[in-house]
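Q: My labmate handed me this sequence with no annotations at all. I'd like to see what the chain might look like in three dimensions before we decide whether it's worth expressing. Could you predict it?
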Amino acid sequence: MPILTALRLYPIKSCGGIVLREATLTAAGLMSQYIYDREWMVVDKHGNFLTQREAPRMALIMPRIRGDALELRAPGMLPLRIPLDLPDPDDGPGLTVTIWNDRIKAYDCDAVTAAWFSNAVGVACRLVRFHPEARRIADTAWTGGIEAPTLFSDGFPVLVISEASLEDLNGKLLAQNRAALPMDRFRPNMVIGGIGAFEEDYAAALKIGNAILKPVKPCPRCVIPSINQATGQPGPDPLDILQGYRANQRVNGSITFGMNAIVLAGDGEVLRVGQEVEPELGF
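A: Here is what I predict for the chain of 283 residues:
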């Protein structure tokens, strides 16, 4: 029986995640205790987004929810607390930030936060928060015209991967005397057990309780799966193995692993690890 085996929330884009037993599904992705997936983002001095691609040490910034704050820890640094209350718009000017082809309004976190992140990441940067007046929509060429909201994700509200897909890759790595990889290298929001390898690629819908997710776009992969999420150090890149069987003509030959999904129904539904998943195959 297919089941939901893992839920993970990434409050800050490209930083550490929070493993959850349950999470609220929203149209814009997962949410827990009013913290949304990719609600915050690190930007450079020009307002351009930063990720582990440029700054692998971002993996070492670990968040946890502590009462009315998001507490952040990084090696060798004192913890930083980010208040969860939205800033007062009159407290100071916001920023216009760039993420891929989108330029959107964001709250600029304070100078103390910027200094903390600059030290943790190793480059001058700032932390910004998605502005409630901002609107960012997933690519409608992939969603079939549905205007699916997202925050600071790469492009879609939810990333889904099956356990069997990772097992398939790890079998190929082990056959070449290379180390198996943990799932956190691929940073999914939801992991599904009990389905075949890459079956998520062919799902027209995934029903979980009253929620319905629609996988819409294969997830193209960059160098991040080569970065050890526990050390922030780049290592052997699995893309050479994936190149042999995961180059996808739907995305111009890019190597794909996992499926980006949108939410068709169930905004506000609570999802729980161990819950049954009903895949509807699209072929």
